[in-house]
Batch of 2 targets.
Target 1
Amino acid sequence: MEQELIPRLYRQEYSKMVALICSRFGVGEIDAAEDIVGETFLSAAETWGVKGVPDNPVGWLYRVARNNTLNGLKHEQVRQRTRSRLAKAGTAAVQPELDISAENIADSQLRMIYAVCHPMIPVEAQVTLALRVLCGFTIEEIAQALLTTKANVNKRLFRAKEKLRAGKITTALPSTARLNERLDGVLITLYLLFNEGYYSASPDKVLRKELCAEAIRLTYLLTVPGKGKGEVRPEVYSLLALMCFQASRLNARVDDAGELVLYEQQDSGLWDQELINRGNGYFVRACDSGVLSRYHLEAAIAWWHTQKTDNGEKWQNILHLYNRLLILQYSPVAALNRAYAFARVYGKKMAIPEAEGLALTGNLFYHSLLGELYGGVDEARSLAHWKLARRLAPTAAERRVIDNKMNGQGGAAF
Amino acid sequence: MTEFALIFRVGPSWKGDITPAEMQNRMTAWMNWMGGIAAKDKLVSSGNRLGIKGSKVVGANNVISDGPFTEVKEFINGYIIVKGDSVDEAVEFAKSCPLVVGNFGKVEVRPLVAPDNNQ
């Protein structure tokens, strides 16, 4: 048996199977659901090694999971709770069926996304929970991806699941009236998940790409037509476009030695053109509606970044978009990026007051920006800011980038 | 922090015949100015522009005339709301407003006050 088969299937199917069981028996039973799925994969590992891999491994997994669910195995309490709930609902069947059709699997996944991204759960915990439950990451992988310890991950998961249970959160889709509001929260969490992969300083390149891919996959699920969902909101398409555009540069951002490669130094030949094209498609759909959300603006900015050559209007457009984004909603990141774009259009000297006016002392990127802007203008000030930035940099890779800048070897940001 | 309304009063030189390029420059300058305030997290509201066509002035005794109100040389073109530690901070914002920089008009800076504030 191919060694990678079961881990691959685990990553693919784990979240779907947990979602299926939770949709049927309630998201409060998530621990039991995870146990049942875990046991299913254990059976696979034991049986396939001896009897050989079945013709339809995925089908085998679902059938066994269904049987395990029905049997309850060690989960007598689950059986009792389920029976009493079913009795109250007046269902005739004593043995509840688990619908393992493709349609129901897709539907359960969507419900699970909304359940995991429930506003009752703190946002950071949502990301951890999403990685475990929606993406099938192991505790080890989550710890690596989020640059934290396994103990922390387990703590966050424990608390998040407590909230699920205490809040009696169900997998029922929010009513149409509340759907918009809930969707905003879901998009924020998926965006955060994407950023964990994109901006992560974790040295594991493969893991980071998987995080981004998972965020894209989950956001894409929100666009699949289904009952009770209404029209797909344009924000979903623009977030998808944004993710595709940014993810297109993942291969170029970190070189083979694990060093960070800044945008201007990147080999655009390593940019994933297919992802860019995919993003273009989503972006066009997003703009169809005439609605303008922050995701539209961010996607537009991201699109300009997929254009390597500057024919003179690139940075004017980016500056204009950042102005609009900030007027819509302030964020320190957008403010810093705006100042950088300002410098690209009007030069470093004119941009310095714009940057200093942000007064984000203690922010790594604030000091990096000023280090960059003062370069060639006031070397003493430039160095002072770079030193501050270096003290704030959390990873060795980022410190190396700053060291290069201080030694004049970093290459010009522009 | 206090909130201030920046009320834009434009003079006749604002309207004039301007080329598309000049219009583009104005928009860019305006967006850079507002973007700069927003970047400092001091923009509370991007407010509104107030139209000219279709505006009226209504007075006592059923006196209705075509607006905007032009008893003074300048008329109100719009407003935004900013926040600051003092009126001086709001004044600094107003100083770099394209209207002021280009001498097309004036910016009135007014603190937003509670209904029962009679100062």
Note: The interface with chain B takes residues 316, 319-320, 322-324, 326-327, 330, 334-335, 338-339, 342, 354, 357-359 of chain A (CB under 8 Å).
Target 2
Amino acid sequence: MMAALLTSLIFIISLWLIFTEKINRTITAIAGAVLIVGLGKGLGFYSESKALAFVDFNTIGLLLGMMLLVALLEPSGVFQYLAVWAGKVSRGRPVWLLFLLGTITAALSMVLNNVTTVVLIAPVTILLCEILGIAPLPYLVTEALLSNVGGVATLVGDPPNILIASAAGYTFDDFLTRALPVVIVVWLSSLILLRFLFHKELSVRPANADVLLQLNPAETIADRAMAWRVLAVLGTAIVFFFLHGALNLSPAFISLGAAAAALVWVRPDFDEAIHKVDWGLLIFFTSLFVMVGGLEAAGVLGFIVRFVAVASALPPVLFGILFIWVIAALSAVVDNVPITIALIPVIQGLGARGMDTGPLWWALVFGAGFGGNGTIIGSSATIVIANLSRKTHTPITTKLWNRRGLPVMLAACAVTSVMYALAYPLFVR
Amino acid sequence: MQVKDCMKRNVISIPADATIAKAAGIFVKHHVSVLPVVDDLGKPLGIIRLSDLLSLELPDFVKLVADVDFVHNFGAVETTRPDPELLNRPVTTLMQTVITVEEDDGLLRAYALMLQHQLSDIPVVNKIGGLVGIVSRVDIGTAVLSIWPSGPKTQ
């Protein structure tokens, strides 16, 4: 009992520190993990070897491989190419620009890290808006929202999906048949909603549309040969992801294999490429695994499972929808990664008590994925866009987000709930 | 040789209560790249550079996009001017911390400071901190070269 209380206390304080951002989240997680292992050794409920066993190396490997691929793709200029292309095709018509940039961001986020996608698309968006003489706000808000929406669609799109797939044994194709259809509907309805939320801004026809037409996307490609090579490797990796269930290959193997192939083929400045890997995030994940392992070893998660099991007396569909909304609300205020890592053993525990876990896993995918759009600090992508906009003449404020971002998140959860209820049998194991 | 031997003594400066618009006028009139901001006693409080004023007009994307070479026409931003309200703020809102050298300092010390802080000009102060001159990289660089063995004698 003592062990459970103290471990929960360390975990809750860590979550609080991560939420308030007073200390870097990775520092908090390392310190929390060390405290929990130390406590576990002292009270005899946890040890170094048990902690290591809780680390999901499939997730870490998959993330590392994708980060290396993106590190090689980033300097090639492919992202700028797409954004400039969108600008040209839109011919300066604001609604077209919004739809095209939003769609490109969502599509890229399906295979690449959301933060990378917005970090690379947003500066070019600001460029397009400035030469057109229009405010970049509607486009930046749209990109932040849709990168999170797109990320929900595939196994590799978002860290929670990687974690859930790894824990529940879902394949890439499971995500394409369950998550992708929901994402397509949410993506379209979000764009339509955004078009109305920003009605005033989008009805101004920019005067400088001809300047946009003078841009040549091809000039944004820094190194054509490198771009093609990395894209070829990425394309091959995606084909392998489709087949990974049939070939019995782990997603981490495919991702690290692709990274190795790209590194051998492109042979970049390795120090520069390895520097772009987000080591802080990988350490954050590892530390969270160790912390949640401690929660489980101390019996905290068992207690939560018994508690949640009481609520499972509700009709299963209603229970699933409630799960989506509770997780979405949590993800809107706290990072969705610790929430997902903590809930995975809870869902597994419910499964051990005979509950069908399928619908709960998908509720976790949707809640954790769409919830981050609820607040300006809800996800890494929204934080990055907000920070970026703070360096410009038109910063995104919390007030603006609550009026233009939050409604889109609520609509996404509502649309998802309806689809979840209608297609409930599809989510059952 | 010391800094005082190659500095310009006629230094253009600006009082702390002047507006940004006033500073812009002085830049244009005297064709200079930096203006030390001084207090009533002539001590430097900060420095305002031509680039600080230009950043008010520079579009945001220039800071954010790594290579803007593909943008041949800047479109709307070419004709956007800073907000008049912004130009009426005091120069102190835009000024940067000033790094100074003393008039008795050596040339290489002054040059090293300019290199490390990426400065093109550096104000010179006397023992009690009053502004007495300004030196540029060109002033210091040519002064150093002029005392090289094969330097000025070949003229």
Note: The interface with chain A takes residues 59-61, 63-65, 67-77, 80 of chain B (CB under 8 Å).
